[in-house]
Specification:
The protein is α/β, with parallel strands linked by helices. It is built from 14 helices and twelve strands. It has an eight-stranded mixed β-sheet, with helices on both faces. The protein is globular.
């Protein structure tokens, strides 16, 4: 059984505020370990949550506890880790110092290695990996909008935390193969960097065959690398990983019939990596395309498009001017087209 302590969202950014806000709106005790900017925003405005499907929730600031001090973890029953991948080790150390030994730690992060990092730094504790399929837009003044759809998938455990953490508007489904699910999500997340470089809304980008072909070539490189490493990814969409690249390359009319119905995307949605560039933050490129290039280097494979995209994102980070708004041709420059 879950101990009678609050659910602490460790690293309350866009995903953390949305997930934590839904839990609080359902009457759960929720605490946010957050940066001062987020704390000030929530204290002033509360949380106004909306979804692509048209649902809305409001959470008053008094309904959640807020602190930048890791001591807020002291009475946690569950810790939902929502920090960027590069900050996983630091948040694990804070959990080790402050959270009860029996607190369940759930990684709601992009990438495939975060749960392993948490387990390495939190020996003897229960750590569950998960996959969040949707993205959340932070619109300011406490407004967070879920701009794509899907249920959270969480590693199955005897206490059935997937069911215990599910509330209206936030369904968590258990799986016996979270590793495959996470690798399948990583392949889809390769579009995060492409979207960040384009600056286009996701729906507009995916409506263009040239951009879809670029995404398809990126998936093909990623799939080649993960299969060479003996990994069998599970797609987060109804489309099997091996079919996705082929369907993305279809002409627009056929794509709309074959794949577009499975892609429920808000007209203004963009990737979290686009938001990172716009806010002059470090991106997670090393945990997405960077993983593909690392596997390829070990396996003696060529992934020129992945290497090119890593270089372009790092250049945009260094420049600090937001999305470079590149064209397909500019991204492909120097890379052989498939």
């Amino acid at each position: 059984m879950m101990r009678d302590g609050p659910i602490v969202v460790a690293g309350a950014g866009s995903i953390g505020c949305f997930v934590g806000g839904l839990l609080a709106s359902a009457g759960r005790r929720v605490s946010f370990l957050a940066r001062p900017r987020v704390i000030e925003e929530v204290e002033r405005f509360g949380l106004a949550l909306t979804s692509l499907e048209g649902s809305s929730w409001h959470v008053a600031s008094r309904q959640v506890r807020l602190s930048e001090d890791p001591k807020i973890l002291t009475d946690a029953s569950v810790v939902l880790v929502t920090v960027k991948s590069a900050d996983t080790a630091d948040i694990a150390d804070a959990i080790a110092r402050c959270a009860p030994q029996d607190a369940v730690v759930v990684s709601l992060q992009n990438g495939v290695a975060n749960a392993a990092t948490l387990r390495d730094r939190l020996p003897g504790r229960k750590v569950l990996a998960a996959m969040v399929p949707f993205n959340v837009i932070a619109a300011g003044e406490g407004r967070f909008h879920r701009a794509t759809s899907g249920d959270v998938v969480i590693e199955r455990d005897a206490a059935n935390h997937a069911a215990r953490l599910s509330v209206p508007g936030l369904v968590m489904r258990p799986t016996d193969n979270i590793v495959g699910v996470q690798w399948g999500k990583l392949l889809v997340n390769l579009n995060n960097a492409i979207n960040a470089l384009s600056g286009l809304p996701l729906r507009e980008q995916l409506g263009s065959r040239d951009w879809r072909r670029l995404f398809a070539d990126q998936i093909a490189e990623g799939l080649m690398a993960v299969r060479a490493d003996g990994i069998k990814p599970i797609s987060p969409t109804p489309v099997p990983p091996g079919w996705t690249a082929h369907l993305l390359r279809l002409p627009d009319a056929l794509f709309k019939i074959a794949l577009a119905p499975a892609m429920k995307i808000d007209p203004q949605a963009r990737s979290s990596m686009w938001e990172d560039l716009e806010r002059r933050r470090r991106t997670e490129i090393d945990y997405l395309q960077g993983v593909v290039t690392e596997i390829a280097a070990r396996r003696g494979l060529k992934t020129p498009l992945s290497r090119r995209i890593v270089a372009l994102i790092r250049a945009a980070e260094a420049k600090g001017e937001g999305s470079p708004r590149l064209s397909v041709a500019q991204i492909r420059s120097g890379v052989a087209k498939r």
